[in-house]
Structure formats: structure tokens, C-alpha cells
């Protein structure tokens, strides 16, 4: 049987129900037809596609997705791929050269990056942005919508901001903080037959969030 922790990103996405895959957007929780521009996207050349964040900082990779920034993830201006510093990446034992986009296709809710550990290239930390399905309900509403299939741990607080914590199984912990009408999600995944305890992974995820939270607008 395949390892349910095949990637940290896959685990985090499994509990984040507002994600969209393939050709549909799910901003309202219901599949919606893709705009005509999204259908035509594959024909565009990468050099004609946006490669910078809102502040003009260039992504650390070249995206081929015209709708990497979309109505599914525009609730916050925060861009982990440009605003997580190399110093932070190094501090957590990650290899800056392994940075890659979390999005696997165009028009996804997930907008962010993941980095692999220097001493364990199967394991990673990911941080990404995705819009809240019901912004008026906040973090509590997100937790309520995603009670199935995961274990919600006691909430935390970082720099005075509420933080959700959850785990879908051994080797995984994900923490959430609100930014505008979006969530900034930090996920730690450790592979192997004997991964660290969940609380240890949650501490690491919270510490990574703590190291970056000053850059995340409220």
C-alpha cells in the first residue's frame, strides 16, 4: 500500500477543502466553470506569465501557470515563495535550492512553496496561501468545515494571533493563521517508519510560522 504521507503538501491539502484541482474553481465550495482565459492558459509561453509577487519580487522558480494568483488565493497579499527568507530556510535545516511551487496545476487554491530538508530529501516544510471558504466564520468556521478525516489539536497563539493545529497521521502536522480573507498554512511532513512525535512536528511547524508571521498581514 502507498505511504499515506507521500508528501507533506498532499496531507495538508487533504484537509483544506477549499482547494481546486484540474479545471474547476471552488471559491464558494461548489465547482465552477473555468474562465475562458484559464482554458487557454496552456498555450501561453512562460515568459508571458506573471513571475513576481505584488511587491515586484521575482519567484525563485519560473511558473507556467497563468492563474497561479487567482480568485482562489487572493485573500492575502502574502507570498511565501518570496517572503520566507533564505536565513529562515537555513535555520530549519532546509535546502534553499530545493524550493518548489506547491501548485501542481493552474488555478489551484494553493499558492506557496515547499522546501526539503538537507538531511532528509523525502521530508519537507511547506507554506502556502488559500482563501477561506467562509471568511465571515473565521478560523472556527474553517475547523468546523474540516472536522472529518483529521485530528484537530488544541489551538495555539503566536504573536497574539490565533493558530489552528491539526494532524492527519504520524509524521504530519499543519498549522493555520488567518491573513485577510485567506489562510496561511504551514505544514511539516517527516517520512520514514519512525517519524518524530506529532507534538514535536507541531512545534516545528509553529516555530516556522513564528519565524515568518511578522511578514504575514493580518
TrEMBL record:
<dbReference type="Pfam" id="PF12079">
    <property type="entry name" value="DUF3558"/>
</dbReference>
<protein>
    <recommendedName>
        <fullName>DUF3558 domain-containing protein</fullName>
    </recommendedName>
</protein>
<dbReference type="InterPro" id="IPR024520">
    <property type="entry name" value="DUF3558"/>
</dbReference>
Amino acid at each position: 500500500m502507498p505511504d499515506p504521507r507521500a508528501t507533506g503538501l498532499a496531507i495538508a491539502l487533504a484537509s483544506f477543502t477549499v482547494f481546486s484541482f484540474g479545471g474547476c474553481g471552488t471559491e464558494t465550495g461548489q465547482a465552477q466553470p473555468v474562465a475562458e482565459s484559464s482554458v487557454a492558459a496552456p498555450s501561453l509561453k512562460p515568459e508571458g506569465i506573471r513571475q513576481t509577487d505584488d511587491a515586484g519580487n521575482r519567484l525563485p522558480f519560473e511558473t507556467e501557470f497563468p492563474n497561479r494568483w487567482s480568485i482562489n488565493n487572493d485573500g492575502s497579499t502574502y507570498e511565501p515563495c518570496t517572503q520566507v527568507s533564505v536565513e529562515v530556510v537555513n535555520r530549519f535545516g532546509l535546502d534553499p535550492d530545493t524550493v518548489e511551487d506547491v501548485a501542481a496545476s493552474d488555478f489551484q487554491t494553493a499558492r506557496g512553496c515547499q522546501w526539503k530538508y538537507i538531511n532528509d530529501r523525502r521530508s519537507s516544510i511547506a507554506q502556502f496561501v488559500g482563501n477561506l471558504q467562509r471568511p465571515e466564520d473565521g478560523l472556527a468556521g474553517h475547523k468546523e468545515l474540516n472536522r472529518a478525516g483529521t485530528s484537530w489539536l488544541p489551538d495555539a497563539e503566536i504573536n497574539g494571533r490565533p493558530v489552528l493545529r491539526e494532524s492527519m497521521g504520524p509524521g504530519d502536522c499543519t498549522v493555520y493563521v488567518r491573513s485577510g480573507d485567506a489562510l496561511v498554512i504551514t505544514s511539516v511532513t517527516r517520512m520514514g517508519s519512525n517519524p518524530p512525535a506529532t507534538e514535536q512536528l507541531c512545534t516545528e511547524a509553529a516555530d516556522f510560522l513564528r519565524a515568518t508571521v511578522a511578514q504575514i498581514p493580518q
